[in-house]
């Protein structure tokens, strides 16, 4: 995924299915300059991670 698309998804009021390592995640924040996104699994909001947006897959 590209950083611009990740930002669009995180800003949208519509829920879009995105996965990271096969697990559905929520995108909290996207840093378009570094290409990193702050995410957490849908079922574990306290488990925040910073990952490359290129590793996110839109379903």
TrEMBL record:
Q: Which InterPro entries match?
A: SASP_SspH (IPR012610)
Per the similarity annotation, which family is this?
Belongs to the SspH family.
Ranges of biased composition (kind: Polar residues): 48-59
Task: Look up and give the organism this protein is from.
Answer: Fictibacillus barbaricus
- In Swiss-Prot or TrEMBL terms, this protein is called Small acid-soluble spore protein H
State if Ubl conjugation is listed as a keyword.
no
**Compartment annotation:** Spore core
Q: Which HAMAP family match?
A: SspH
